[in-house]
Write a structure and sequence with these properties.
By secondary structure, the chain is of the alpha/beta class. It has two domains: 186 residues, 3-Layer(aba) Sandwich (Rossmann fold); 68 residues, no CATH class. A six-stranded mixed sheet has the order 6-7-8-3-9-10, sandwiched between helices.
Length: 263
């Protein structure tokens, strides 16, 4: 079996809240991810998905546990770990006054992509993601769909082996959401390790090679969809999910197959 590119052991993050006291946002989770797979982190809003991903991205320091990206410890070697990673979120902002080309050049260089290869890399990304028509336009002038393409290209500008997509389709229309799914599959097929966070059941069913169900900061199950079906005797992911977490009444962010919030 291929060695894991992402290895997480006992990862935890505790916050202090004046109203609730100590809050364990992530509570000692373990998982591995490998090249050429989409690993889904599935949970309702507030389950601990984004906190987990921010620790992997060295944005948050873990309270306990270990996370390694390509063997690089995110606490002991944060700079080296970051260079192995591309992070995409629907809320990730672009610099509005930079052009699309300047954006890609900047992110390639800031992540230490070889200087002599930057121009060729940017040209490749411009062609691959269909950015040529507006490559000289400032980001602030672009449509939502155009910004999405630039943002994905920015994420892979330095050709990282590991990619994180945190709720990437939030706020996108159907066409742009489908385009996002297509790009993620292509990147998986190129051998990238992809961690895909979502609370939308249909996205996880269609995209993920393995799925980890996270609830109240704990991973309750982690396996292929077929294996989860066998374990629960359920077919649809929403039913599997509810079996593990114990009900939907406490999960305002739970999204059914139809895309509407459960009541």
């Amino acid at each position: 079996m291929t060695e894991p590119t992402v290895a997480v052991r006992g990862l935890a993050k505790t916050f202090y809240d004046e109203a609730r006291g100590e809050v364990r946002a992530v509570d000692g989770i373990d998982f591995d991810c490998r090249p050429g797979e989409i690993f889904g982190l599935l949970g309702a809003n507030g389950a601990g998905k984004t906190t987990t991903l921010r620790m992997l991205a060295t944005i948050l320091r873990p309270t306990a546990g270990v996370a390694r990206l390509m063997g690089r410890d995110v606490v002991e070697e944060p700079v080296a770990a970051r260079r192995t990673l591309g992070f995409y979120s629907a809320t990730t902002a672009l610099y509005p006054r930079l052009t699309a080309r300047e954006t890609l050049e900047f992110f390639a260089r800031v992540n230490l992509y070889p200087e002599e290869k930057v121009d060729a890399r940017v040209d490749y990304l411009v062609g691959r993601f269909g950015i040529a028509e507006y490559v000289g336009a400032r980001v602030e002038k672009l449509s939502t769909g155009m910004k999405q393409k630039v943002s994905i290209a920015r994420t892979v500008a330095h050709d990282p082996p590991i990619l994180i997509f945190d709720e990437p389709t939030v706020g996108l229309d159907v066409i742009n959401a489908l385009e996002m799914a297509r790009v993620i599959r292509e990147l998986r097929d190129e051998g990238k390790t992809i961690i895909f966070s979502t609370h939308i059941m249909s996205e996880a069913e269609k995209l993920c090679d393995r799925i980890a169900i996270i609830h109240n900061g704990k991973i309750l199950a982690s396996d292929t969809l077929d294996a989860l079906r066998v374990a629960t005797g359920r077919h649809y992911l929403e039913d599997i999910f509810v079996d593990y977490v114990g009900g939907v009444e406490e999960m305002p962010g739970f999204i059914r197959e139809s895309g509407s919030a459960a009541e």
